[in-house]
From TrEMBL:
Signal peptide: none annotated. It comes from the Bacteria. SUPFAM superfamilies: CO dehydrogenase molybdoprotein N-domain-like, Molybdenum cofactor-binding domain. It comes from Methylobacterium trifolii. This is Aldehyde oxidoreductase molybdenum-binding subunit PaoC. Residues 28-142 form the Aldehyde oxidase/xanthine dehydrogenase a/b hammerhead domain. The lineage of its organism: Bacteria, Pseudomonadati, Pseudomonadota, Alphaproteobacteria, Hyphomicrobiales.
Amino acid sequence: MTQTFSSTGRDTFVGRPHSRVDGPAKATGLAKYAGEFNAPDLSHGYVVSSAIAKGRIVAIDTAAAEAVPGVIRVFTHENRPRTAWLDYNYQDAVAPPGSPFRPLYDDTIAYSGQPVALVVAEDFDTARHAATLVRVDYEAEAPETDPSKLLDLAYDPPKKRSGIKPPPKPWGDASAAYDAAPIKLREEYRLAVEHHNPMEPHASTVVYEGDGTYTVYDKIQGVSNSQGYLTGVFGLKKDDVRVMNPYLGGGFGAGLRPQYQLFLAMLAARELKRSVRVVLTRDQMFSFTYRPDALQTVSLGSDRDGALQSLRHDAVGATSRFEDYQEVVVNWSAVLYGCENVALSYKLAQVDTFSPGDMRAPGAVTGVFAIETAMDELAYATGLDPIALRLKNYSESDATAEGKPFGSKALKACFTQGADRFGWDRRNPEPRSMREGKELVGWGMATGVWESMMMQSSARAALTADGRLEVGNSTGDLGTGTYTILTQIAADTLGLTMEDVTTKLGDTRLAEAPVAGGSWTAASSGTAVMKACRNVGEQVFKLARQMEGSPLANVDFERVAFTDGRIEVAGDPGRSVSLVDAMRAAGVESVEATESAGPDTDFNAKYEAYTHSAVFVEVKIDEELGQVRLTRVVSAIAAGKILNPKTARSQIIGGVVMGIGSALEEESMMDHRLGRFMNHNLGEYHVPVSADIHDIDVIFVDEEDKANPLGVKGLGEIGIVGTAAAVANAVYHATGKRIRHLPITIDKIL
Ligand code: MOS
């Protein structure tokens, strides 16, 4: 029998909307973030950032800074304590191959904004002021930060990044088929470099405990990663470093890897033997990870009915000089569309910046923008409706994985239900054919896709004799609802109320779990919590069976259900024992279990798992001003079981808004002469604000999947994927202008 998460078979909480259990703590300010924890001996670090992008430090003069009253120490590469980098081979859990950046290591400058000094003072303002007095003399070289200048040097990643599938070998003969195809198009696509800009800046508070141990509050999507970094780099023992991060103000991938403020805060705390906090400024948030530029070419050849004859997708993505950052950019084209002749390639070009990193749906945002814009172009070239073209080439199996079938793929339902809700059948396909007053109206659509993954995770559950359950593990809640869904799963598994359950996350003393990322947290931590609760339930059941005159004597565990705080014989509510009575009768104060859950290897041997979406967008564009208003979005999502429709809807809305940002606004502008991102603040790096966002309608289509016992596929990324292409396609429909380089700004429309 397939085990469902709820042994009652009744979903009391799972599958129903529930507000975030952490909402009140956040709304009242009780929720504390990494830069808000205090210690009596707290000192404050302020980072001095490199003014050049490439070269070396010739001299660094800290005397004036050190002379400021209240300044405790200025750390540079010249006086860096030798306690760091005891494990020279440190690699974090989500790092690409290469040599991770080492702050204050030597005089080399590898990128603009690189930390060159840390000023530690009694208070923040003193540290900030003194930091302006640190004088750095550089010997500068000309940086190269434009990957389009480096195409001749593009190379195949020498080492594969763990978890990232390289493009499959080509099949058929894509170029011959392209030449022979009656309809063909070949275009270049590009998106802007984007920075994550979570609301909470990166921050670390290292509390010096006086006995050689440290309590660290770090802005990270998984505390185990920070702990691994600190133990590896500083030669500390796991027990000596407790890392916590109960709340995150967003991450979008910027918090997957430990960043330099963590290193600097620990370095200073160890040396000064006191607590240190380092908070990065918003402009320093532009001095590390970002979504890389990628130059893409898509070539499509089809017959006159729109059946693809040739599919080629080539990409060159930017990386740094010290790491081969890789993401899946081109594979999506062949995941989405069936074709006999396919060639996919992905290469890297090294620029003089920090290493790019994963940013919400890394690679998919990039590659799907290209293929889904190209498919819209093919729809016009063949005269087919964009949905009809997609259905004509609909893939029934994953060609990038030797043709393995999808465990589930309800994308057709996304097309149907999304189109229906949007009113797609009222669309006149002719560009510039729909208008309202002085505004051109455009309707566009696109498909989204993301891999559904699961990671080995553990979780602990503990039920006490007062009927309260605590569950949790070390993963982070990005703010998206992990606390809430885990509470729902735990409550249902043991038949308790939401109020009976406390979920704890973000603490290395809890059961070990990976970073929250990749849309894998619901499946991974959710299954682990369910298993741990199930284990606790079985232990209490055994106690209940031993009670004198137990109504459960001689009943098998498989036959009982947990409901209303009781264990009852399924279908016979008269025969039951309360959990609390069972524990009290046995004189047991607490029943605990830790369980681990990981990918289902049998399932994965047979099936591939992806989430899908169909995104429909309406734009209204002022014909004279070129100003785009995005008036309506319908996003229809196939992502397996939806644990909580309320937090799930918010996840998708967030993804869609971020997709709107990448389509219309977000752009980190590099001055290639200086090798520096110039708009490193939220005044000049534009993200959508409330006034930019109108109707966003989210549909979850029914989809049953068996990749994990919960049937969930994850929602963190799918909302953003495809959104930018849908916007670009709507802009084309409105204006007749095909814009292949994001963001779509007024200058490109007019
Ligand atoms: Mo996400 S880019 O895996 O945080």
